[in-house]
Amino acid sequence: MTLPPPSRPPNFDPRQVPVLGTDAHWPAVAFEQLVPDALRARFQNPPDWQPEVLSEKSFTERSPAHAAVLVPLVLRGPCRDQPTVLLTERATHLNNHSGQIAFPGGKADPGDADATATALREAHEEVGLDHRLVQVIGQLPVYTTGSAFIVTPVVALVAPEHRLRPDPNEVADVFEVPLAFLMDPANHRRHVVDWGGHQREWFSMPYQDGVQERFIWGATAGMLRNLYRLLSA
User: Is a pLDDT exceeding 60 seen at residue 98?
Assistant: First the structure.
């Protein structure tokens, strides 16, 4: 698929971009690697591994900005051993990544001590997540978006007792996807598009949430792909 070279992010439906394939021949992360103790251990003592996606081709001329997102793993299941990933659908009127599926997060403020502080503050502001119910277990490699955000993904375990209060000015919806689904490369689809004289590639991980498809793609899918690489190493 080829798009004309606009001066801002391409306005197109990523669902319409052809799928090149999946990695169904790769193994899913085993169930025992997705339980809380195993997740903590993996971040405390990571193996030798390589992230797969670290940056996107830029489509803006503005100055880079530091940001952080929270990758919230909600401890669902009778024994809290069936984690889900909490995601948001961004409000459609936002200037950046409007309407897309995202982790809670945003730009760093001068008063933030570090990326963890940014991620926790933004998660509280966006969806009302109480930091007292959040246990940060580590970080994924920094990811630079095409919109010039330098993003640190902060991974955390979240107690299921949380009560969310989404800010309608920033968030259109909040939902959860089983971590096991996202850590199965059979659900990772590859896409490519020619735009602005460059070939741009990304992953998508569409999830059928009842009657609604949650189309996870772009930076969010790229960070999840890196999480898969870490947990499967």
Answer: no
